[in-house]
Amino acid sequence: MRPPSRSVVAVLQIVGTELLVILIGVCFATLLAVIVAALWLHGDAQSRGMDATVWIVLLILASFFGGFIGFAIVVVVYLVVRGNHPVGGAMPYGYVPYPVAPQAACPVCGGPMTWYPEYQRWYCPSCGQYR
What we know:
Blueprint: H1 6-47, H2 52-81, E1 104-105, E2 112-116, E3 121-124, E4 129-130
Antiparallel strand pairs: 1-2, 2-3, 3-4
């Protein structure tokens, strides 16, 4: 078998060097994307009252073991889960908490009465009767 000519070896060395530079550039771009995403995810999770450390660890592990696919999965899952955690830890839009029961006085003894929604009636603990 004949050894490759010097021109073929020179072309492979040039192309190999260019591919190596491209590969290193892609690695740095990926590392930069993970760092930027981790900083954004940490700030957003903290503003929503979520455990930011868990999300950062998940993002780093998924990126390390799963590459871009793992990175994308964690970001998508976070975007879905964060919808249930509004900014500042407030109640979600449209959420109606239990209404505060109005205060009432017993018509017989004048003592405070308690509203029981399951019976839809007032109860006077002093008289021991529903009104």
